[in-house]
Every structure is written in C-alpha cells, then in structure tokens.
Amino acid sequence: MTAEGETGILDASWTAPTTNTDGGPLTDLASFRLYYGTTASPCPGASFLRIESPTSTPASGQTMSARLTGLITGSRYFASVSAVDTTGNESACSTTADAVARDDFGGAMPSSAVPSSAMPSSVMPSSAILSSAPASVPPGGSVTVTWGGIAAPTPTDWIGFFAEGAIGGAYTWNYVSCYQGWESAKASGSCEFQVPQSQPPGRYEFHLYSANTLTRLARSSPFTVTPSSSTMLSTAPASAPAGASVVVTWGGLASPMPTDWIGLYAEGAIGGAYTWNYVSCYQGWESAKASGSCEVQIPQGLPPGRYEFHLYSANTLTRLATSNPLIVTP
Predict the structure, then answer these.
(1) CATH architecture of the domain formed by 116-225
(2) What's the pTM?
(3) Please, where in the chain does CATH 2.60.40.2840 lie?
C-alpha cells in the first residue's frame, strides 16, 4: 500500500487480494476499509473509509485507490487497508504507509489533472450531456448527476461540483466510478453527490471533464443550494450489537411526505443502505409525518464499525438529515 500527501488530501492505493487465507481463490469480496490516523498503527480503529469493491473476484494486480480529505494540514497520517467479504468477515490489516497532509490550494480535482494555468479557453466540442436533480437541495443533501453521450469515454473522466459559471475550484468531485478511485470507462451513467455540509446557499452546477484533464465535455443546468434545513435526525442508544434494535427519531420536516424514508448506512457513505423503512416504520408507506420515531433492528451479521442513519425525501435520494454515529459492537 502507498500513500501520497497532496494539497489538503491524502491519496492511497493498494493491490486487491485474489486469494483467501487458506490459499483458495477469492470469490466473495465486498469492500475495503481504509483506516487512517496520526498514530503509527491505525488499523483496526474507529476512523476508516469504506470503499465498495467493483468486483467480487479481483484480477491479479488490480489496483484500488481512494482519497482522504479534511485532514490537518502539515500533520503526518498513517494508513492501512483491510478487505471485507460478503458475510462481513474482515481480513488482517495491510502494511502501513504514511504521508503528510497539505492545504488544497488548487481546489478539489483529480491529482493528475493539468494545472489551472493550462485551462482551455473554450470547451471541447462534444455530444456529451450532463444533468442533475433535484433542482434545489440544502447543505448536506444529495444530488443525482446523470451523464451520457461521451464519444470516447475513459476510466478517468470526472465530474466536479462548481459555483455557477466558474471555470475552476471544484468543491467536491468524483470519477465516473462515483468515487475518487477510477474503475472502468462509462459513456453514460449516474452518481449521487452529497453537497458539503458547510456549502453556502447559492447557485451551482456540475461539470464533466475528460481523462484527468480540465477539458470540459459538458455542464449541467444550475441548481440551488438552499439555506440549511431545520430537519433533525438522531439515534439511541449510541452503540448496540448486530441484531439489536435502536430508536431513530426525526423532526422538523418542512414539507413531509408519506414516502419520506430512513436508511442505515456506513458512516460517511452516500449509497448502499443496509436496511430502510418509510416514516411509517416499515416498508409500506402510510401518512406524512413531520416528526416521529421508529424502532429499527440492526441487521444480523452487520460487521462491527461506525454507521449512521439518513433521512431522505419522498422516494428520492435527496437527503434531509444525517444522524449521530451509531457504533455496532462485536
């Protein structure tokens, strides 16, 4: 495993495993956990990033990568990775790599993209299209970005979130893989983006760029980040084992709908709910509820770790609120 410190970020890459501990072929890989911290032995630990594996049977030499953000400038961070199979079994930790985090002076963008001074004065002629929905969302909410028509797609085509009319300084970005590690080329597809919690209200847009460059292929229509939502979501108790129940409480929905729903996710994830219910407290909707509470059972077999609940609007991926962390204990 290697780690490279860049302006405001830490990039990590590793080779996916191909065999089980007994020497047999690996056929049920589900995800990786990238542990990180300022101590020399971060794995296992409470701080980790969960990365979905693109395949359950990795090819020999397949490389994975991920980016850590929000680190303390100038501090040395240590990182180690483990693999998790479809039944929740976690491998031993990899060797540890380390690097120093620095300020992100260039704004969020792929690390190998050309510098802003090389930005083209006009976009590349392209038949590509890019759109986002919904048309407005509060900070912390989610937006679905959809693209199509890329004539010569590459794995490192990427999408950034910008102020309306801006030509640099992305607030957040992902490859067309939907995270900050590239996989396969996609001429069309869609990804869920979370608007940063601290994003000021205003008008924004998404840009689609080619192959780790600042050659823009398409730009979405503008969407509005609205003032922060008053919606709240909490869970209690703060820790529980798999199979136990927790109480999830919400309130302050300005425009409640019968199909508002709540899902259980890995901490920091923007997709892949382990379980969900409507605000009716089961998977059949009834009446709208601006506030209420539901008892939710943690799925049996859920691996120990840090999780959270998300509250979404009306059968969409527009996130209204995120709960305090829930720790699933062994």
Answers:
(1) Sandwich (2.60)
(2) 0.44
(3) 116-225, 232-329
Bridge partners, 262 (sequence order): 277, 311
CATH class name, domain 2-100:
mainly beta
Q: Count of CB atoms within 10 A of residue 18's CB?
A: 15
Q: Are 310 and 322 in contact (CB under 8 A)?
A: yes
Peptide bond into 196 cis (omega under 30): no
Instruction: Name the DSSP class of 140.
Output: T
Residue whose structure tokens are 């379980």? 275
SS3 content of the chain, % helix, strand, coil (to 5): 0, 45, 55
Distance separating alpha carbons of residues 219 and 130, to the nearest angstrom: 6
- Name the nearest CA neighbour of 165 among 106, 222, 226: 222
Whole-number Å distance between alpha carbons of 239 and 46: 13
- Which phi and psi (to 5°) does residue 292 adopt? 165, -170
- Nearest by Cα to 45 from 7, 71, 79: 79
Q: What is the pLDDT along the chain (330 residues), one digit of tens a residue?
A: 555 444 456 778 888 899 888 888 889 898 899 998 888 888 888 788 888 888 888 888 888 888 777 777 667 788 999 999 888 888 999 988 887 775 554 444 454 433 333 333 334 456 899 999 888 888 877 889 999 999 999 998 999 998 888 877 788 888 998 888 878 899 999 998 888 877 888 899 999 998 888 888 999 999 888 876 678 899 999 999 999 999 999 988 878 899 999 999 998 887 788 999 999 998 988 888 988 999 999 999 999 999 999 998 888 877 888 899 999 999
